């Protein structure tokens, strides 16, 4: 029974994911921008040696920004590899640090980050890093593996600070889908020591200032009806001026009707056709459906989940 349910769920996720991705791409009225920034920085690997050790072979950092245009879909894959250290057989290897690619706005963002991980095999490894901010996008699926340590007949210590949230905005609209996948602070030791650390996620800086929803804004200082005296007595406030009649010949402004917001023009009623709202400039249709980016994001998530289940099933079968 369990096998049948697992197979059905896997097929449903893969099929539904493909359909959702196709629907999201087909429903997009404009070109769809997809960015997949890959960042591999500040990792350490020690095999028969200690890393980082300093000196030895120095490698340059790698920073590339390939992209492909598929017509309605444009995919950018900025890759950053830098600041990694390794010691293999006592030969230290280090890499120059490299800043991550600046976050660029996109419709769909799938940033993949591998940082601050340490692996020690018959040696010691220590690494510390941080995850870059996720790009602003309507659909964001950041995948982060950081602060993990694996020690096999050796010691390993990894530390990382992941980033929660996105920087900037997408034109003032909030993100439709945000599905972070984070593996952080994990330690695995086999006849050795391993320590994984994961600090509190840092918040990305928003692109504009935010005001709490529903916060009351003071209109003016309230005037008390009377002032209190030290002996407990009070003095009455000043009475109002009353109503001043309008002299003859001066029209009185009409009173604002209830339910009509002040300052907004009201369309006149038409007897020979359909009334047109004031300020309308041309014909336009309102889009009331689901955003294509949200559908695409849900499809990507379903595909990832189905693929993970299929891979786990294969490993269980071969193991």
List keywords for this structure.
319 residues, alpha/beta, 2 helices, 27 strands, 17% helix, 33% strand, globular, signal
Q: Helical residue percent?
A: 10-25%
Rg (CA only): 31 Å
* Sheet with most strands: 7 strands, mixed
| Mean pLDDT figure | 69
Summing up helix and strand content along with how strands pair, one would put the structural category as alpha/beta
Order of helices and strands: HEEEEEEEEEEEEEEEEEEEEEEEEEEEH
Distance between the termini: 21 Å
Strand content: 25-35%
Q: What is the tally of helical segments?
A: 2
Regions with pLDDT < 50 over 5+ consecutive residues? 167-175, 203-230, 256-290
Strand tally is 27
Order of strands, main sheet, comes to 5-11-10-3-14-18-23
Shape: globular
């Amino acid at each position: 029974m369990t096998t049948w349910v697992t197979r059905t769920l896997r097929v449903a996720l893969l099929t539904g994911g493909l359909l959702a991705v196709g629907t999201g791409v087909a429903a997009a009225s404009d070109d769809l921008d997809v960015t997949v920034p890959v960042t591999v920085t500040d990792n350490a690997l020690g095999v028969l040696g200690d890393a980082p050790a300093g000196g030895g072979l120095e490698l340059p950092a790698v920073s590339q920004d390939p992209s492909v245009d598929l017509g309605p879909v444009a995919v950018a894959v900025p890759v950053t590899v830098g600041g990694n250290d390794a010691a293999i057989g006592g030969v230290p290897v280090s890499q120059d640090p490299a800043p991550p690619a600046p976050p660029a706005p996109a419709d769909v963002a799938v940033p993949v980050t591998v940082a601050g991980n340490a692996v020690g095999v018959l040696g010691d490894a220590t690494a510390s890093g941080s995850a870059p901010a996720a790009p602003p996008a309507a659909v964001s699926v950041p995948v982060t593996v950081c602060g993990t340590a694996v020690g096999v007949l050796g010691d390993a210590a990894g530390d990382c600070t992941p980033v929660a949230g996105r920087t900037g905005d997408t034109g003032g609209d909030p993100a439709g889908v945000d599905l972070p996948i984070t593996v952080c602070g994990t330690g695995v030791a086999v006849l050795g020591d391993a320590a994984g650390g994961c600090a509190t996620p840092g918040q990305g800086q928003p692109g504009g200032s935010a005001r709490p929803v529903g916060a009351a804004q003071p209109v003016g200082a309230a005037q008390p009806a009377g002032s209190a005296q030290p002996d407990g007595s009070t003095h009455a406030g000043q009475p109002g001026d009353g109503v001043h009649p309008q002299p003859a010949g001066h029209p009185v402004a009409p009173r604002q009707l209830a339910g009509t917001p002040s300052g907004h023009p009201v369309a006149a009623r038409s007897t020979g056709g359909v009334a047109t709202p004031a300020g309308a400039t041309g014909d336009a249709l309102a889009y009331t459906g689901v955003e294509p980016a949200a559908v695409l994001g849900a499809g990507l998530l379903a595909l990832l989940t189905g693929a993970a289940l299929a891979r786990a099933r294969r490993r269980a079968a071969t193991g």
